[in-house]
């Protein structure tokens, strides 16, 4: 840690070089931060080894700038990219699943608020036991939270994350993103992101909660009814900018203390298909996406516990996520 706003040496060097209009020497960087020139040199070497284009000569260190945007062409998710919040960020270039890394952190007693990201995942997990294709260029992360609330209130967090991600994806891609019950985000009728929630309770209280989200950003999408942000925007986009934007929305929602009814209304206003007729199919182990339809109903939105409300004749059914799939038919 250097004396400069409690940044790590890497975060500090990065910040200074990015802001600088001229080369900066190890001596002056060290002096300003109250650390040795050797500590700065180690920080620079660490950054170079991680892929940053930093050069050094007798005039000092400089970071290579991209002529067009005046910023270096990088889209790194390393913890030191997040400056003062660095301690909350954990990054794996490649891992099996960020859900597993979150679990390990939680079991070691990590505090809530951790953000676990990965460049690629070898066994990315989707809902209902499906895989989540996790090739380079996508954004894959898990939020570890310890809300200490009753287990039944966990849905508040997935509803908020979906709202936050929907807004951020819409902003960066320039297209309107919509929610689909239970945990998906769609743009122009193609899936762009999905959320997976894992709960760990103690008695009736949540011990910890992990919320994983995968967003197609620059990665090739695995199937035709999916889309990525780059295709929508017509250019590659920064995963880091998108992550920051999601986290900003997420923090604002968490801090807002929004009442449950209002949160549901907000969610339903952003959700596709309300008022449409859907075919309802129970998910079975062999058909996690639901097989033969088990009836139809009119989709009315979600309730606060994340259940879909379906009008079937004169009755309103409440359907738990994971148990059924809905397919719009009219
Ligand atoms: C779905 O739509 O089925 C949910 C997909 C969730 C994927 C994310 S990627 C980050 C986190 N790690 C995982 O293994 N899964 C979630």
**Main beta-sheet annotation:** 7 strands, mixed
CATH evolutionary superfamily of the largest domain: Bira Bifunctional Protein, Domain 2
Runs in which pLDDT lies below 50 for 5 or more consecutive residues are none
Quick one: CATH class of the largest domain? Alpha Beta
- Radius of gyration equals 22 Å
Distance N terminus to C terminus? 59 Å
* Quaternary status: single chain
Characterization of the model:
With 330 residues, the chain is α+β, with helices and mostly antiparallel strands. Strands 3-4-5-9-8-7-6 form a seven-stranded mixed beta sheet, sandwiched between helices. A five-stranded antiparallel beta sheet has the order 13-12-11-10-14. Helix 2 crosses helix 3. It has helices at 9-19, 26-33, 37-49, 98-107, 155-173, 229-233, 239-256, 260-269, and strands spanning 54-57, 60-63, 89-95, 114-121, 139-145, 177-180, 184-187, 190-202, 205-215, 277-282, 296-302, 308-312, 315-319, 324-328. It has three domains: 4-63, Arc Repressor Mutant, subunit A (Orthogonal Bundle), CATH 1.10.10.10; 79-269, BirA Bifunctional Protein, domain 2, CATH 3.30.930.10; 277-328, SH3 type barrels (Roll). It is elongated and about 80 Å long. It has eight helices and 14 strands.
What is the strand and helix layout of this fold?
Elements: H1 9-19, H2 26-33, H3 37-49, E1 54-57, E2 60-63, E3 89-95, H4 98-107, E4 114-121, E5 139-145, H5 155-173, E6 177-180, E7 184-187, E8 190-202, E9 205-215, H6 229-233, H7 239-256, H8 260-269, E10 277-282, E11 296-302, E12 308-312, E13 315-319, E14 324-328
Parallel strand pairs: 3-4
Antiparallel strand pairs: 1-2, 4-5, 5-9, 6-7, 7-8, 8-9, 10-11, 10-14, 11-12, 12-13
Helix pairs in contact: 1-3, 2-3, 5-7, 5-8
The structure holds biotin (BTN).
The site of biotin has 20 residues, from helix 4, strand 5, strand 8 and strand 9.
């Amino acid at each position: 840690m250097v004396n400069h706003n409690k940044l790590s040496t890497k975060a500090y060097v990065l910040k200074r070089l990015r802001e600088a209009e001229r080369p900066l020497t190890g001596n002056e960087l060290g002096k300003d931060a109250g650390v040795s020139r050797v500590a700065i040199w180690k920080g620079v070497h660490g950054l170079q080894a991680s892929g940053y284009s930093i050069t050094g000569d007798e005039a000092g260190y400089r970071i290579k700038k991209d002529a067009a945007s005046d910023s270096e062409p990088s889209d790194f998710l390393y913890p030191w990219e997040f400056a003062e919040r660095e301690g909350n960020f954990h990054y794996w270039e490649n891992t099996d699943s960020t859900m597993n890394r979150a679990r390990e952190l939680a079991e070691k007693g990590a505090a809530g608020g951790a953000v676990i990201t990965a460049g690629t995942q070898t066994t990315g997990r989707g809902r209902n036991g499906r895989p989540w294709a996790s090739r380079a260029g996508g954004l894959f992360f898990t939020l570890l939270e310890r809300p200490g609330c009753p287990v039944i209130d966990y849905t508040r967090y997935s509803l908020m994350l979906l709202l936050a991600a929907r807004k951020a994806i819409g902003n960066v891609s320039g297209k309107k993103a919509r929610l689909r019950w239970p945990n998906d985000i769609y743009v122009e009728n193609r899936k762009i992101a999905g959320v997976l929630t894992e709960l760990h309770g103690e008695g009736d209280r949540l011990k910890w909660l992990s919320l994983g989200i995968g967003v197609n950003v620059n990665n090739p999408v695995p199937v035709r009814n999916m889309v990525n942000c780059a295709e929508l925007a017509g250019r590659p986009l920064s995963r880091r900018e998108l992550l920051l934007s999601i986290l900003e929305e997420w923090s604002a929602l968490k801090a807002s203390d929004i009442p449950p009814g209002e949160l549901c209304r907000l969610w339903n206003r952003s959700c596709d298909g309300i008022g449409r007729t859907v075919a309802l199919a129970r998910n079975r182990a062999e058909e996690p996406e639901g097989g033969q339809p088990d009836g139809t109903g009119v989709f009315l939105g979600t309730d606060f516990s994340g259940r879909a409300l379906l009008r079937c004749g004169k009755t309103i059914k409440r359907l738990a996520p994971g148990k059924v799939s809905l397919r719009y038919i009219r």
